[in-house]
Design brief:
The protein has two domains: 33 residues, no CATH class; 238 residues, MetI-like fold (Orthogonal Bundle), CATH 1.10.3720. The radius of gyration is 30 Å and the shape is flat. α7 packs parallel to α13, α9 runs antiparallel to α12 and α14 packs antiparallel against α15. By secondary structure, it is an all-alpha fold. The chain contains 15 helices and no strands. The longest helix has 32 residues. Keywords: Cell membrane, Membrane, Transmembrane, Transmembrane helix, Transport. It is a multi-pass membrane protein. InterPro entries: MetI-like, MetI-like_sf, UgpAE/MalFG_permease.
Length: 322
């Protein structure tokens, strides 16, 4: 019986195969993608143009001016090119070297500052009893002014304050939290973490909203412990959120501790709590050395850039390994 709907070549060849009559898939013409109009192609650039111009005018241009100003002199040499003299003076200043050492301490403590809100967000996401109350309580310190936080902890951490009184009742000798050079920086960093981790907690909770709950249910069915769930399920799925929190927390620790330092220690004792931002303020506001302050600002920017890129690279590798 003849094939009515067969290809002409099939009908002509009798019992020939249809795949020989049709061209191979590679030779078939695929439909060309429909290109949008010129207006549609330009629309994304038009939308980001105002933000790009604002960043260029208010961020990048002043940054370049500051870098250029750091190669000029102060005082009698104001406005004259001095090369790298400001940078030589910076790295020869014991206070600035102490500030750089404290930056290294902050980098080492950064995982702890990120892990605390991450763990608390995990507990809240798993709906521990009272999780709604904890969410509000943990975020509350983030709305307080650093001056208020510093004043509160000055009272709590005073040598004759309530914390040392509680330690004395427990048989522990009192600690000079803000007067001991070996302890003061840890105390200030601890207060800063307590005052700011609420914002990171909110970011982690937003990341948990994108997590597939079926993965957690499967892990529970398999009998995985909480630590295994965190390490093998939560962390790999929240890699980008962790990257964001790492970078923003680092920026906050390097650029947002001035209020606490000013109220709690004023850079003391013996300059042990100096950070680059406090050093910049001293040189600019008290010593009237804006060029040297610009050099310190440039060094701080480079440190933040390098540390941020290293953190993102390490976290991306960890995410690929998992």
């Amino acid at each position: 019986m003849p094939l009515r709907n067969a290809h002409p070549s099939v009908r002509a060849g009798g019992a020939g195969r249809t795949d020989e009559a049709l061209p191979p898939p590679a030779e078939r013409r695929s439909p060309r993608p429909v290109r949008g109009s010129r207006t549609e192609r330009l629309a994304p650039y038009v939308l980001i143009a105002p933000t790009a111009l604002i960043i260029l005018a208010l961020r990048l241009y002043p940054l370049l001016l500051g870098v250029n100003f750091s190669f000029t002199g102060d005082g009698e040499r104001n406005g004259t090119a001095v090369g790298v003299d400001n940078y030589r003076e910076l790295f020869g200043d014991p206070l600035f070297r102490t500030a750089l050492g404290n930056v290294g301490l902050l980098v080492l403590l950064l995982p702890v500052a990120v892990a605390i809100p991450g763990l608390l967000a995990t507990f809240i996401y798993l709906r521990v009893p009272g999780h709604r109350l904890y969410r509000s309580v943990y975020f509350f310190p983030a709305v307080l002014s650093p001056v208020i936080v510093g004043a509160i902890f000055n009272l709590l951490l005073a040598f004759d304050g309530p914390l040392n009184a509680a330690l004395s009742r427990a048989g522990v000798s009192p600690v000079d939290w803000l007067g001991d050079p070996d302890v003061a920086m840890f105390a200030v960093v601890g207060v800063h973490v307590w005052a700011t981790f609420g914002m990171a907690l909110v970011v982690f909770l937003a990341g948990f909203a994108t997590l597939d709950s079926a993965l957690l249910d499967a892990a529970r069915v398999d009998g995985a412990s909480l630590l295994r769930v965190i390490w093998h399920v939560i962390i790999p799925r929240l890699t980008r959120t962790i990257q964001f929190v790492f970078v923003t927390t680092m920026i906050g620790m390097l650029t947002s501790m001035f209020g606490l330092l000013y109220v709690m220690t004023s850079g003391g004792p013996e300059g042990s709590t100096y950070l680059p931002e406090y050093y910049i303020w001293i040189q600019q506001g008290q010593m009237n050395r804006p060029a040297l302050a610009s050099a310190a600002s440039t060094v701080l920017f480079v440190i933040m850039l390098v540390v941020g890129l290293l953190q993102i690279t390490l976290l991306q590798r960890a995410g690929r390994d998992d």
